[in-house]
Structure formats: C-alpha cells, structure tokens
Write a structure and sequence with these properties.
Number of helices: 19
Strand content: 15-25%
Distance between the termini: 40 Å
Shape: globular
Amino acid sequence: MGSCKYWLDFVQYFRYQGNSTYFLYFKHKHILTGSLLTTAKYTTNARNILQRQRNVNNQIPKTFAIETLKMSSLNLPKLLEKKRDGLELRKDEIEDFIEAVVSTAIDECQIGAMLMAMYLRGLTSAETVALTVAMATRGSVMDWGDTDWADRVVDKHSTGGVGDKTSLMLTPALAACGLKVPMISARGLAHTGGTIDKLESIAGFNSNLSDNDIRSGLDNIGCVICGQTGTIAPADGVLYKTRDITGTVPSIPLITASILSKKAAEGLVSLVMDVKHGVGAFMPSVEAATELADSLVRTAKAMGIRTSAVVSNMDAPIGFGIGNSLEVLESVQVLKGGGSKDLRDLVAALGGQLIYSVKRCSSREDGEKRIKDVLDNGKALEKFKEILVFQGVTMETANHVCGDEGAYYLPASGYRTEIVCPSSGWVSWLDSKRLALVCFELGAGRRVAGAPLQYGVGVWLDVGVGSEVARGQRWVTVHHDTAVLDKGLEEEIKESLVISDVPIDAPDRVTKIIE
C-alpha cells in the first residue's frame, strides 16, 4: 500500500498482538501510505521502519506527519453486542471500528454483523456524525488552506435519477460564476446513469485524476469532474460492498455516512444535495427522501460544511435524453442557452443554492439568475470546453462536441425506431424507471462492474408531462444497436406513456428545499 512495502507484515502483527496495540501512520500529501502496528516492546522496530521509509527518497518529506494512536483495547465481539442491544456507541469505539476496517484487521463476518446491528438498531445523530468523520479522515483529505479561494470550494451530490445530467452543466456554470468545484462523481448504479460514464462517451476524456491534477484544474479553470480515487474514504468501499450483499443498503445513517465521507474529503465549504423521490429514485416517497435529506443536511452541518438539500421529483425523466452520449448532447444544448426548460431550471435551482451559500449573491433567486446568465452568454459552455481539454480531449474534438454538429462526434447507435402516440390528449405520466430499465437492457448500463457500455443507445423524448399530443405523433425515438428493436422492450416503452383526455399541468420538479 503506497510506498511502504511492509504493509502486509503490519496487518499480520495486528492480528496476533494483545490489547495494548498502537497504530503508527505514515502520511504524505494526505495519502495514507502505510501502517505499523506494534506494542511498546517493538519501539526499536518502529525506529527501523522509519529509517526504511527515510531511505525510499533518502529523506522524510517535510509534509510527513507521524501520528500514534492507542486503540482502546478494542474488543469487537463486545462492541457488536453493544450495538446489537441498541446501545449508543462512543466516538472512539466507532473510530476503532473504522480503523479495523481500513487495516483489514477485522473479519468480514464481523463487518456484516456490525452493519446489520446498525441497520436494525439505527444510529443517533452523534453516532452518524462520528461514523462519517471517521470514514472521511481515514484516507486522503484535500486541503485548500494555502489558496486564496478556499472559501469558494463547493460541490453537488445527487442520489441518482433518470436523465440526470445536471453535473455536466452545473460544474462549468459554477466555475464561470467564480466558484471552485472539485466534482468527484461516480459511474452508473442499477438503472440510474453515472456522470463519469456520460463524459467518457467523449473520445479521450480522462476521469482518473491525481490530487495534483485536481488542484491544477481548480487553479487554472476552476473545476474538474473526475472519479473517486482509491485513497478517498477507503472504508466506504469496504462497507458498501458488504452492505450490498447483506441487505443493509437502505439505511438512512449508513447512506448518509457513505455520501458525506467522500464529499467531506473534498475540503468543501458548501454542498448542495439533490435528493430524489418517485418511481425512478431510490427513495420512492417524499417522506423517505425528506428523512434522508434531513439526515444529510444535519450531519454535514455538524461537520462544518454549509449544506442544503433540494428534494426533487423523479417520477418523469429529467429533460429529453436518457443514455450516455444523448445526455451529453442535451447538456450542450442547455450550455448554449437552449434545451429542456425542466433541466435548465433544476440546474439553476442547485447552482443558486450554492452561490447564495458562499455569499456571492444577495438571494437564492439572484443565484439562479447568475447561473442562467452564464448558460445564456456562453461562459459556461467555454468552461465545459476547458474541462474537456484539461482532462484529455483534443481541442478539435471539444470544439466539435460543443458545436452545431456534436452528434457526429459522439458515439451513435446503429438503428433508430420511432414510436407514436396511440391517441390524442395530454401526457399525464411518463414512467422514468421503465424507460431507464429499457435503456439498461439496450446496453447503456452495466450488469457487472467494468463491463463495456454501448454509449450511443438510449431514448430521446419529444414530449413531457403536460404536453398536448395528437394520435400518430412521434413521442419517442429509441436508439438501439440491434437491427430490430426487441418487441418486449418496445412494449415496455409504450406502457411508460399515459395520455389523459383532459389537460394536465406539468408538476414542479423541485418539491421542497431543506436548509
């Protein structure tokens, strides 16, 4: 692990030592590079390890910090019993548990048992904060204290939706407004698309940035959009994998800690959460989404991050496009001042919250206006081009993607099928989850991690909820790579549309704002 080749030996030391156990950390540039676990009688060994580490570069870097922590006689079975019985864990007990997870000094069955106890018994607000902080600080944490823009570092997180491409417009728009955005995003999960997958449909785009790359991006253009590095909140990767196979994913405190441990590692001063509810969201009801939003806002504020949450409706898709390259095309439309009003308004609502939170405007409404202004005047589009070029895309490709013929420079499907309205009236329902699952089956999502994507497949909608339609009018175009669209998928698409014979008002995308 890192530059310290003795890591595995140290883990073995931990497995067989007694209660008086110490951790000796080597930290360089905020990255955990090794760990020595030793009892007092091994102090000579500790000095030897330091000397070995010194010999890697002939000197210990100035930023090298040595921290010794004494674990409080960690007794995992007793800790498990305590949480099983519904008792509150102390901060140091939670820290010890996360230390054991990160150092692999704990059996997988014990991790699963603790997560199940947390799921069934719940966590108090204090426990949730302690868990989140422990997960965030046991890895790389970005520090912008030596810059003159540390008070303007912001980010957004979405709980996942259908056609949710807001990061592609929000990130450059915020940078164009003078904020700094180290946007660390994810790949697709289940039926929801991922920001990184969408951007990687652009030839040459590199989402794997180092800490130095991220700093350079913020210094020079104001933002980056990249994937999570292995050094950020490493405990989260272990815990999430275990949650996924133990039925403990839908836990509000565990979801809160998972999300915020990664965002806290970005060194943010302000964060806006887009917490979705509806058929296309992981939280089906407004009540469940509000509970999660409350937990996220409360926990982040306790960690010193100014945070608000936009609770938004995910019954219908966001905008017109669903599918990786199709969503890039729609994002460029919005960056040019056009595109879906629904999508544009959501981007403005999220951005307005952040600009207002760092006192760069007089009100949320003023913040929203500033976002719309940079979408209309081309400044956000120029920032988007800068992101692409900084992250590996050629200037020629970036100009084409952001130009009038962008569709010719992005992956396209081999075939298209148009589906028409069966009757006249007003669209009263568009089932976002059904449409997303169709796109998944077409190849827009992954069944297993690392599987290749078909970037050009997906659906493009010509209507939204509230649209007046005529019988025989095209309402959706399906982009697919098979010569004939699968009949089962075609029926699913048809079933996702409901037409009313009376006018329908389009529902508000934003349900509520929690601060």
